[in-house]
Amino acid sequence: TNYENQSPQGSPRGLPGFSPGVSQRRRATSLPGSSQPASPGDIKMKKVVSSSFLGYDERLWSSLKHQLNNTKNAYGAIAKETRRASSLPATPAQPRSAYSTTRFSDGVTQASEFETPTTAVHIEFLQRYASWIYRLVGDEKFRSVTVYELVYGFAPVPALARNPRSPGRKTRPSTWCIQSLTSSTGLSLLDALLQNECEGQNILMEGLHGPFGPITHFVVHTWSMLFVDLLDILENHAAQADETFFWLDFIAVSQHEPPPFEEAQAVEMLNEHAALVEGAAELVLCCDVWSKTNVFSRSWCLFELLVRLTAGGSVQLSLTPRASQRLQVLCSTLGNEHDPFSIPLDTYDETVRDMLKVNSQQSKASVCSVEFAIKNKILATLGFERLDRLVKATVLELLDEMAAPLRVSTAIAALRHPHHLGLRVAFHTLCKLITRDFHNITTLNLEGCPAVTQPYNNIAVLEGALTGNGTITHLNISNSGIGPVLGALVAGVLTNSEHMSLRVLNLDSSMICGRQDSSSPEDSSGVEDMMNVLAEREGLQITHVSLKGNFLGPQSALVLAERIRWNTT
Description:
This protein is an alpha/beta fold. The chain has helices spanning 58-70, 74-86, 123-137, 139-142, 147-152, 178-181, 189-194, 201-205, 227-238, 249-252, 263-279, 299-311, 321-331, 347-355, 368-381, 384-415, 423-435, 459-467, 485-496, 525-536, 554-564, and strands at 45-49, 113-117, 119-122, 212-214, 217-220, 245-247, 282-287, 315-319, 443-445, 474-476, 504-506, 544-546.
């Protein structure tokens, strides 16, 4: 974002003064720019029941824990379900029932109703706020502002660091920070703006239409994160939908209310917070997986993930720009082959699994009573070890999908150059990624990859990978010189696949009938195998098959003419 052209307008999450989830007892009484009292319909508040998550009884938790302990690959299955939900249109979380004998909703206890803010902020408001800070502090300081500093301002300069000629001079407070903007009312920034009592009301709200709305995206992040990185992530999400409103704790929650120290207060706060997590259509997980102070070290973030993963629903993993660059470098690297008789390991798999650390038992929160309440809730539900394994499996699944297109491109580039040292690694990585059915891989371009038929690459493995895939719609194996075996491969894939979505098949110049030119002997077995399946198999969605440059002989042409008349697609 070019903040200079916009109109006028650290420390980890949960440091002293921060009390996430505390209900706002002070309600807005007037609309921005108006002295008239606000009607209930103007301010988007509503009554909601308490979180169903905290109403699950021990019987249902025991059922889920039993499934995780005794069902093969249960963690991976839940991670895949979450990943697939993230590729679908956004929907609120629903109680998970696939891994328990009884639906969680059957065990929910009746809870009392309470008021909770359902208003979140639009990206235009955040851009206006960022533009104002940019003009006040300059480019260099702006790009170093963390979320913690956005709330509390820059730390005071120590006396020894000040000008020695005026040792008594004090630094000016950051007038743009949230605490300064809301100091006169003690409200959250959101409520202060709604009441028209924010210090920078005119600068932040002038000319904006509909800056607040119901929650669509619940954002999980740390307060040590750079504000410019957080804004970059949210802008990417906002560009994908028109009506996107983000729930951000530092805007929606008062930074002046004292944190709860009683156990009952902490439990009530967790209840309200869980309801927000469950009700959002999307949960955006903002993190740098290479950082030691990422979301997996904070108790609040792990509690939010516990609620979301238990209730089901979408989790959108979003990396910071720095983490994305490191991921691109990692995906562009292939491992070396040390033992020609064993399956080679990919550098990506080794690095990512060793890098990602989740330890909920050692996670921290600034308020001891809140940390104690969160950890008690983790122990009463899944337990530390199960939560760690579930979070790690889910994040790895989401990270793998994010990296899949670049890893596929790297593997194909290696297969196009037979002298490359990592051919077996590339072939094995490609087949593994195809099998995993990532929704962001819809086109597989193997044009000019003769290495797939090398003796050390079993083409039957590629056939099995394509058979199990349900997302690839365009398959290009042109200029590969594979020969008649290519027809058998395509026939096997189309015959055995249960979820085939293939629509376009490009087999140009692949020697499918064994001829390099019109004078070479012909082998029509490959064409016959493929065309038999295309003529007889029902439910296929293929609408385009290209066989240019294959020097089809009389036998192949006859088979093609006889079989194609029975095809209806």
